């Protein structure tokens, strides 16, 4: 295995058996020393071992970079998951933590294959402890492991008075790129690790300050251009934990990366230089010169350094070999090339009920307690002891960063506080000494400001001290407190000036503990790097953090979501109707800051700037022009550009007044003046003109003062002006105006630029329709640790993937999809396996209506929302690490390989606040159309007879429910033949309209579905007969209102309307329609306007009397064939009612009621229709729907492009077989004829194809004897 600066070595295989130690063994052949990779056995613990472990002493410190594991040789024993502890001593351990705070490593799946883990950050250790967490249990399997560890090592110790200087070859170093690496461990907060300077202001310094690592780098400063080159990067925290930390510095030109352990920060160096020029040498561990024992205001490093590499040079190795390029300070004591371990035994208080109980000496008159702690929590019990002889108790507690001392005495309580800001995560020392009437507390050994208490009290020490909390059970010492348990670390506990040996105390059972991790400090800095976005403030506790988002303009768990709308249009749509100043955030959760604009709620978003007043220019030329930068109020250029991007239209008024100052130098030539827009591009067209032409508005309007020029000012007369609107959005906003022809005598120019005005929101209505399985490709989504996705969708499909992004192996991905008609899924794998958030809607989501989807994910939770339904939330456990490092393109419309393709419309897609241009990727030939246009818009065969086209996007179908027709295109009549005396009644209502319903009518008088108080009707039907007279249809009501169509004796048609007290009579046609041919009748009324039409004649428009009520009140029943209503019926109706209608009637509809369809095609158990007499279904020879030629893709018999090719291929094969057959027969005939042979043959007869299909355009045959029609039953 290779590492960056050489080879790494296997560290376990060369060790002696004495370097291996285990908690137990299964048998002799399973001893710890057999746990070597590729060995003939392996280590297995005893089955009775409750906490098995395997420990390895590497004999010296190494930088550990990887581990490999196997199971026990030729067995069913292997470990499936484990964790690794490391340390410099066998009694002080640090767990290896993966990304996200997880310490569990995956193991093996059989005994022979090697599972290797390359650690994402290297660590330094002398001792390793292997803890099995899971193992194979099938076929009698148990714990079994063989392993190997890989690493390397060069170490040097510093005590603050040491230094190593590495002299550059040639006396100086000039580099374009650098690679520096080192490892360190220390107990100090501050110290200089590296330092070097150059003659031109170049600086390189790496230092530890307040337990954080700082890199100061300058590539040079310029006094001429006043360029400050110093750049500072900071990374890491709590680096004073006496554990090894791995540091790398990588630089190429001005790009610098600083990494500590697994955390990397990047920046671009200030200034304009790319080379680092350093003189003489680089100092390691501090700067010690004869007149300078250390850098000003800096401390030299105290601790251990390991593997210090400077651009490939191992400085510690050269120092150990006493290389001439290495210099030590004079009178420096001998250098130690080993790192001595301090005997510290920290412990972690990690549980809700943790505590440590240690013994003390009973009834002493003096008490002394000392300990160190570190924590993030604001509150927790540090120490409690109860005095002997019921003299009270003493409590030390952490509260709001202070140590509170509570002295409880019989009948009184004394409270005091010491220190401040002690919950900062650093180590702090508490030293308490007490006797009768005197108590002193010293924080951090600051003897100059101890807390002294001289109140009257008595004390005698108790025999037990409690640290971190009180036991919840078996609390015989009456440890009582109102504080919650302490969460953090403690070490160096002294009772009565004697150190507490935790190991000895627990072995002798002199003390007790619960929910503690001994030998390690597990504190984690959750606020480094800062998980709060947009400059949110991070506040943390032992196991969690919160983000304070006040005054940032953002909200949410990590300050990710903007509190403002993206535009004035969004404010207007949300209900804001008053014009004024508003704050907008065009990229929402993106990196750009919100800014203030003026919103004219009628149309415009207005952004002001510093060039709205007239600016006078003189003395400029083409070579030395006047540069007028446009600074927009409260917003940067990028922020204003984002506003223009999301707007539908933008404009700026520009005006140039000239006095002997030319403008564009038109019609050709280099322009004297111009303006610079988006992306820094120069534009040579002026207001009122168009991009790509070097003209002003007067040239477009043909109004220039001199037609030889394309601008008024280019004529070079004394005083003119050119002005107009600039409205090409892709060039907005204007960033700079350049004026270049004012250096002649008496020449000058005045210009002004209007505010940027934008309106509309192009991102919300950026819409495409997916009509075939296809996806749109966008650049890889790179969200970091937080992501939000929002879009609108509209579909009739029951499933489909809206979007997906993944890495190469699909080990990290996010996906939003419709899983069923009601289930919406947000599926992701971003660090902790495949998880999903499911939102179950109470209503179907495939209802072909727009639905708004929002999906969010961060280190705390993932959630999903649709429309106004509540969020569906998946909370993550603490220490969750979210990594969304995708490498594949973002796919919109389907998953990889077009799986689970979405069919429907999508619009307004935003990823982390940035809109995606869906329409720009649309390709109708590939199945993605612009706008929400499915198959219904340009259907080859549209739905007939009022049928509603139901969009399927890849296909469509016709909804014929509210029509009197059926069939795929609602083109088939449903009719019936009526014999003499046959009638049909359809009950519209069973009772009269209530007063409440009458009031509801006034709310929505045009809604036919209300079923009452109609001010309009639509009636249509077809009929054929030779018998007169007859009442073709009759609609009654619960009052005296009715509608009737009467076939008179002469064959003409009349219409009778009775609304309130009067009856209106209208003639539909005077022609004889009782001729046995089918006739179509359409009647439409709106208020008092009536339109009637028979067949394809011109519609007749007629008007009712103004004295007539315009409402048809409470319709009751609909009669066909004959009126069988009870009660008072008009004489004219009775006159034409007998013997009844004889003939055929079809396609009958009154508003939404189709009685014949309800009778022959009932869609409910008890349809409201009754028939008497002989009523047989028939289409009556009514006019058929005239259908166009069916396209191949709409033909149900056509199977697609491949089908036609398939049939063509089959035809060619059949033709070849026929040719071959006839050729063979001809050869046989020739051969036989030549020999005068004679044969009989049976020739096949021609057969008709068994398959036939009549075209949709074929007219059905008519039978003129309509009363005698007896049709065959239809077969579907």
TrEMBL record:
Residues 1242-1276 are annotated as: Disordered. InterPro entries: ConA-like_dom_sf, EGF, FA58C, Fibrinogen-like_C, Fibrinogen_a/b/g_C_dom, Galactose-bd-like_sf, Laminin_G, Neurexin-related_CASP. Residues 1-152 form the F5/8 type C domain. Residues 155-339, 345-521, 765-932, 989-1180 form the Laminin G domain. Residues 523-560, 933-971 form the EGF-like domain. GO terms for cellular component: membrane. This is Contactin associated protein 1. It comes from Scleropages formosus (Asian bonytongue).
């Amino acid at each position: 295995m290779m590492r960056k600066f050489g080879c790494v070595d296997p560290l376990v295989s060369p060790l002696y058996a004495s370097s291996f130690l285990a908690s137990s063994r299964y048998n002799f052949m399973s001893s710890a020393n057999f746990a070597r990779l590729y060995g003939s056995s392996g280590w297995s613990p005893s089955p009775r071992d409750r906490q098995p472990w395997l420990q390895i002493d590497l004999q010296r410190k190494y930088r550990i970079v990887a581990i490999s594991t196997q199971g026990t040789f030729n067995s069913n024993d292997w470990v499936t998951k484990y964790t690794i502890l490391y340390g410099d001593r066998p009694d002080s351990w640090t767990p290896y933590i993966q990304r996200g705070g997880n310490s569990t490593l995956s193991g093996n799946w059989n005994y022979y294959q090697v599972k290797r883990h390359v650690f994402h950050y290297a660590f330094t250790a002398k001792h390793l402890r292997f803890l099995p967490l899971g193992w194979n249990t099938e076929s009698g399997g148990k714990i079994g492991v063989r392993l190997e560890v890989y690493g390397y090592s060069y170490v040097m110790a510093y005590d603050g008075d040491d230094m190593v200087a590495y002299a550059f070859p040639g006396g100086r170093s000039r580099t374009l790129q650098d690679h520096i690496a080192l490892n360190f461990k220390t107990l100090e907060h501050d110290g200089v690790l590296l330092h070097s300077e150059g003659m031109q202001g170049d600086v390189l310094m790496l230092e530890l300050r307040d337990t954080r690592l700082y890199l100061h780098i300058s590539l040079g400063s310029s006094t001429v251009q006043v360029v400050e080159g110093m750049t500072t990067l900071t990374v890491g925290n709590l680096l004073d934990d006496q554990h090894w930390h791995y540091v790398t510095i990588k630089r190429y030109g001005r790009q610098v990366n600083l990494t500590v352990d697994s955390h990397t920060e990047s920046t671009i160096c200030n200034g304009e230089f790319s080379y680092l020029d350093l003189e003489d040498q680089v100092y390691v561990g501090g700067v010690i010169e004869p007149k300078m024992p250390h850098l000003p205001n800096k401390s030299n490093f105290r601790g251990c350094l390991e593997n210090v590499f400077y651009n490939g040079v191992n400085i510690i190795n050269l120092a150990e070999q006493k290389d001439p390029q290495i210099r030590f300070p004079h009178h420096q004591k001998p250098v130690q090339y080993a790192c001595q371990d301090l005997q510290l035994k920290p412990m972690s208080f990690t549980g809700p009920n943790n505590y440590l109980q240690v013994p003390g000496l009973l009834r002493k008159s003096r008490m002394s307690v000392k300990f160190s702690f570190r924590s993030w929590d604001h509150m927790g019990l540090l120490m409690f002891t109860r005095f002997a002889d019921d003299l009270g108790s003493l409590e030390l507690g952490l509260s709001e960063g202070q140590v509170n001392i509570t002295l409880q005495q019989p009948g009184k309580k004394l409270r005091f506080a010491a220190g401040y800001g002690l919950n900062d995560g650093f180590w702090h020392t508490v030293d308490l000494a007490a006797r009768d009437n005197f108590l002193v507390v010293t924080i951090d050994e600051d003897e100059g400001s101890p807390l002294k208490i001289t109140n009257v009290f008595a004390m005698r020490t108790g025999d037990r001290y409690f640290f971190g909390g009180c036991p919840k059970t078996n609390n015989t010492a009456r440890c009582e407190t109102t504080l919650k348990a302490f969460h953090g670390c403690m070490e160096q506990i002294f009772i009565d000036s004697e150190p507490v040996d935790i190991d000895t105390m627990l072995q002798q059972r002199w003390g007790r503990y619960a929910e503690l991790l001994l030998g390690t400090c597990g504190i984690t800095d959750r606020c480094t790097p800062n998980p709060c976005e947009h400059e949110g403030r991070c506040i943390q506790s032992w196991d969690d953090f919160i983000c304070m988002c006040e005054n940032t303009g953002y909200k949410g768990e990590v300050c990710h979501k903007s509190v403002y709308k993206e535009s004035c249009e969004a404010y207007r749509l949300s209900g804001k109707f008053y014009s004024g100043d508003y704050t907008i955030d065009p990229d929402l959760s993106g990196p750009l800051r919100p800014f203030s604009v003026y919103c004219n709620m009628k149309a415009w978003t207005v952004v002001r700037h510093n060039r709205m007043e007239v600016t006078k220019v003189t003395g400029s030329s083409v070579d030395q022009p006047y540069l007028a930068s446009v600074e927009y109020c409260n917003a940067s250029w990028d922020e204003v550009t984002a506003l223009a991007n999301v707007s539908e239209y933008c404009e700026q008024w520009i005006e140039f007044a000239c006095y002997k100052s030319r403008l564009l130098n038109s019609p050709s030539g280099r322009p004297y003046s111009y303006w610079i827009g988006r992306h820094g591009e120069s534009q040579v067209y002026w207001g009122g003109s168009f991009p790509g032409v070097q003209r002003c508005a007067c040239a477009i309007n043909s109004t220039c003062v001199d037609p030889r020029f394309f601008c008024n000012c280019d004529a070079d007369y004394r005083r003119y002006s050119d002005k107009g609107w600039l409205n090409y959005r892709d060039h907005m906003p204007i960033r700079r105006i350049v004026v270049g022809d004012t250096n002649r005598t008496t020449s000058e120019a005045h210009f002004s630029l209007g505010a940027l005005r934008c309106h509309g929101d192009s991102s919300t209505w950026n819409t495409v329709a997916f009509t075939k399985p296809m996806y749109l490709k966008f650049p890889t989504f790179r969200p970091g640790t937080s992501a939000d996705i929002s879009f609108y969708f509209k579909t009739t499909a029951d499933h489909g993937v809206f979007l997906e992004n993944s890495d190469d192996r699909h080990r990290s991905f996010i996906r939003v999809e419709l899983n069923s008609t009601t289930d919406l899924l947000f599926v992701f794998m971003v660090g902790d396996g495949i998880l999903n958030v499911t939102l179950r809607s109470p209503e179907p989501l495939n209802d072909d209506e727009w639905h708004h989807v929002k999906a969010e994910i961060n280190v705390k939770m993932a959630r999903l929302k649709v429309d106004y339904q509540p969020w569906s939330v998946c909370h993550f456990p603490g220490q969750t690490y979210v990594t969304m490092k995708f490498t594949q393109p973002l796919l919109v419309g389907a998953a990889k390989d077009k799986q689970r393709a979405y069919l429907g419309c999508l619009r307004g897609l935003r990823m982390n606040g940035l809109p995606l241009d869906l329409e720009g990727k649309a390709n109708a030939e590939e199945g993605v159309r612009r706008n929400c246009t499915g198959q219904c818009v340009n259907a080859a065969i549209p739905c007939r007879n009022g049928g509603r086209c139901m969009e399927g996007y890849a296909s469509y179908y016709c909804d014929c429910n509210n029509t009197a027709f059926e069939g795929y295109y609602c083109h088939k009549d449903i009719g019936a033949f009526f014999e003499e005396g046959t009638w049909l009644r359809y009950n519209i209502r069973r009772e009269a309209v209530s007063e409440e319903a009458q009031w509801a009518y006034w709310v929505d008088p045009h809604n036919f579905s209300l079923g009452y108080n109609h001010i309009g009707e639509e009636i249509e039907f077809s009929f054929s007969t030779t018998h007169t007279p007859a009442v073709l249809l009759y609609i009654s009501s619960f009052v005296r209102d009715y509608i009737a169509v009467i076939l008179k004796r002469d064959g003409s048609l009349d219409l009778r309307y009775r609304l309130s007290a009067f009856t209106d009579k209208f003639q539909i046609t005077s022609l004889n329609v009782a001729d046995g041919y089918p006739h179509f009748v359409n009647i439409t009324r709106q208020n008092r306007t009536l339109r009637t039409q028979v067949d394809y004649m011109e519609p007749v428009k007629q008007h009712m009397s103004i004295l007539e009520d315009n409402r048809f009140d409470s319709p009751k029943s609909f009669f066909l064939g004959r009126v069988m209503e009870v009660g008072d019926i008009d004489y004219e109706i009775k006159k034409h009612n007998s013997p009844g209608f004889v003939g055929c009637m079809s396609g009958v509809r009154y508003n939404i009621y189709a009685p014949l369809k309800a009778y022959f095609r009932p869609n409910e158990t008890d349809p409201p229709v009754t028939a008497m007499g002989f009523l047989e279904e028939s289409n009556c020879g009514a006019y058929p729907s005239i259908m166009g030629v069916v396209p191949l893709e709409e033909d149900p018999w056509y199977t697609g492009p491949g089908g036609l090719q398939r049939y063509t291929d089959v035809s060619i094969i059949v033709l070849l077989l026929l040719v071959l057959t006839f050729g063979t027969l001809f050869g046989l005939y020739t051969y036989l004829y030549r020999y005068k042979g004679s044969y009989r043959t049976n020739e096949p007869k021609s057969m008709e194809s068994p398959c036939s299909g009549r075209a949709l355009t074929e007219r059905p045959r008519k039978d003129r004897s309509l009363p005698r029609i007896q049709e065959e039953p239809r077969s579907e």
